[in-house]
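Incident log, structure service

09:12 report received: a user says their structure output differs between two submissions of the same chain.
09:20 pulled the input from the user's history:
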Amino acid sequence: MLCTPAHERSREEINTEIRDFLATRQDHALTRNERRVYEQLLTEWLAAPQPRRPHRSMT
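09:34 re-ran on a clean worker, output below:
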């Protein structure tokens, strides 16, 4: 987890990791350590470049 810098991972990859991480913890609140991991993932997701959307012509 968190082994690749944000500039090398897409937001989709990080989002999948966040979802997988949280899915395994559905039955309990996050511990302090788990919360730190989640916050690191969220920070990485926010720092990752957003995908460019194609420009749509108005014609």
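09:41 both user submissions now match this output. Likely a transient worker issue. Closing.
09:42 reviewer note: The CA atoms of residues 6 and 44 lie 6 Å apart. The radius of gyration is 15 Å.
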